[in-house]
Amino acid sequence: MSQVQIMSVIGSAVPAPLRELGLLACWYLVQDGEPISGPLTSLPAAQALSQRIGMGHLSA
Fold first, then answer.
1. With 80 as the cut, is the pLDDT of residue 1 above it?
2. d(Cα 34, Cα 41) in Å, to the nearest integer?
3. Which of 43, 41, 42 is closest to 18 using CA atoms?
4. Can you tell which superkingdom this protein's organism belongs to (predicted)?
5. 15-51, pLDDT tens digit by residue?
6. CB-CB contact of 35 with 16 (8 Å)
């Protein structure tokens, strides 16, 4: 089973709607190099979602 990882992006890699809100960074969850979440606006939000997904994998 592959791990879910947190990837951060900064600057022009941040989606335009988030940049328009003034965000200069965002986070995605990735698995096997593929994004499995949309852009998240904070690292704590990404960590919380990662933990929830990880718990789901443990119970499956």
1. no
2. 18
3. 41
4. Bacteria
5. 999 999 999 999 999 999 999 999 999 999 999 999 9
6. no
- Residues 55, 3, 7, 38: is their CA dihedral positive or negative? negative
Residue 59 pLDDT more than 80?
no
Instruction: Record the pTM.
Output: 0.84
Beta carbons of 14 and 39 less than 8 angstroms apart: yes
For residue 41, give both structure tokens.
Answer: 């606006």
CB 42 within 8 Å of CB 31: no
∠ Cα 53 50 38 (to 5°): 95
pLDDT of residue 48: 97
